[in-house]
Design brief:
Blueprint: E1 2-6, E2 11-15, H1 21-34, H2 39-59, E3 63-72, E4 75-84, H3 92-95, H4 109-116, E5 119-125, E6 129-137, E7 150-151, E8 166-173, E9 183-190, E10 193-201, H5 206-221, H6 227-237, E11 244-251, E12 257-263, E13 267-271, E14 276-278, E15 296-299, E16 305-309, H7 330-341, E17 348-355
Parallel strand pairs: 5-7
Antiparallel strand pairs: 1-9, 2-3, 3-4, 4-6, 5-6, 8-17, 9-10, 10-11, 11-12, 12-15, 13-14, 13-16, 16-17
Helix pairs in contact: 1-2, 2-4, 5-6
Length: 363
């Protein structure tokens, strides 16, 4: 079954005071309402947003809350990512138990978030901070204490059902002070086949966003064409815009090979617990100057994931520098890279995709 996802209005909140908790809750509930959630499900989303924002204020000394809607297999999910650089958790499992508190509260926050979420994951390192992922389905499917929910906590045992075989994480936010984001991303999935795009419109703001939209629309029309053909098609479609850097990746069905083509400064990597391999792009600007485009093939390891990001994220990162991060959800990996390597002066996009079936315990 074909699923098509792409960058939409991901909303970013800086959370540092109690007065901002209600704003986060109301924004999350509005997003759920416009996404077709019923009243009960809207209430769940509001509770999760409140608990995550409260934790940022009271336990982390502040942080960010990112909200977005994701559609896959005909269903809709609201994703909440709480990101901080606080003290971190020395014992994640204890923090998930009701009644455990380090801040003088009732200690039911993260446990409640886990139970209400269809997908839940935490990555926390003492002295570095914490990322909490929660996804809630429109249909009201919840995580549960009996083990049927897709929750991970510290060790990891589940993943988001973007499609039967694939797990996605994506962050796409504008430069601080801008309303429109000049970056964009698209993912098309059909079984275990996937096609990916990350695009970075030249500069930032309205005209960069227009260039990114032109590329995304062209890509979405036929996402499973070979990447080199997709790049040429986007180049023609972006004529008249200020142009963009872009990269496409294609994972054919039942394949252990990734096909990749890129123009400009989009970072592309194949990562696994053992190694990280850079993916080659050529110089140029789609829509204005296409000097050369070439398609490359890369082995896709059994436990590999592809990471693509705009130049709003520094390329000086390594997943191996984060103990145990490779066992966590793709959205958590994207959030950690955004937190620690975002430049803060440009639009920022990180896209992470892996195969569920290739990593034991994912279902």
């Amino acid at each position: 079954m074909l699923s098509m996802l792409g960058s939409s209005s991901q909303t970013r909140f800086e959370v540092s005071a109690d007065s901002q908790i209600g704003e986060c809750r109301r924004a999350a509930q509005r997003l759920a309402q416009v996404s077709g959630f019923d009243e009960t499900a809207v209430g769940r989303v509001g509770i999760v947003a409140s608990e995550l924002a409260t934790n940022l204020v009271r336990h982390a000394g502040g942080g960010e809350l990112l909200l977005q809607a994701l559609a896959g297999q005909g269903d809709m999910q609201i994703e909440l990512l709480a990101i901080d650089r606080g003290p971190g958790m020395s014992d994640v499992q204890s923090c998930l138990r009701d009644g455990y508190s380090t801040g003088g509260t009732l200690g039911a926050g993260l446990g409640a978030v886990m139970r209400l979420s269809g997908v839940f994951d935490i990555y926390s390192v003492v002295g570095q901070g914490t990322v909490v992922l929660a996804r809630l389905k429109r249909g009201g499917a919840k995580g549960s204490a009996d083990g049927r929910g897709e929750s991970r906590g510290a060790a990891g045992s589940g993943a988001a059902r973007l499609d039967d075989a694939l797990e996605l994480g994506a962050i796409c936010v504008p430069m601080p002070g801008e309303i429109e984001c000049g970056d964009g991303w698209q993912v098309a999935c059909d079984g275990d086949a996937a096609a990916m795009l990350v695009v970075d419109g030249l500069g930032h703001g309205t005209f960069a966003a227009a260039a990114a939209r032109a590329a995304s629309t062209a890509f979405a029309a036929e996402p499973f064409r070979p990447p080199v053909e997709a790049m040429r098609h986007m180049h023609r479609a972006m004529s008249g815009t200020r142009g963009a850097a872009a990269a496409c990746a294609l994972l054919p069905p039942c394949s252990q090979t990734l096909e990749y083509a890129g123009i400009g400064n989009i970072g592309g990597y194949m990562i696994s617990p053992e190694r990280s391999q850079g993916l080659v792009s050529h110089n140029g600007t789609l829509g204005t100057q296409l000097l050369r485009v070439q398609q490359f093939s890369y082995a896709w390891p059994r436990d590999g994931r592809v990471v693509m990001h705009s130049d709003g994220i520094s390329a000086r990162w390594s997943v191996s520098a984060y103990q145990g991060l490779h066992t966590h959800h793709s959205a958590v990996i994207a959030a950690v890279l955004y937190r620690d390597h975002g430049r803060g002066r440009d639009d920022a996009t990180v896209l992470v995709l892996g195969r569920r079936a290739a990593r034991g315990g994912l279902q």
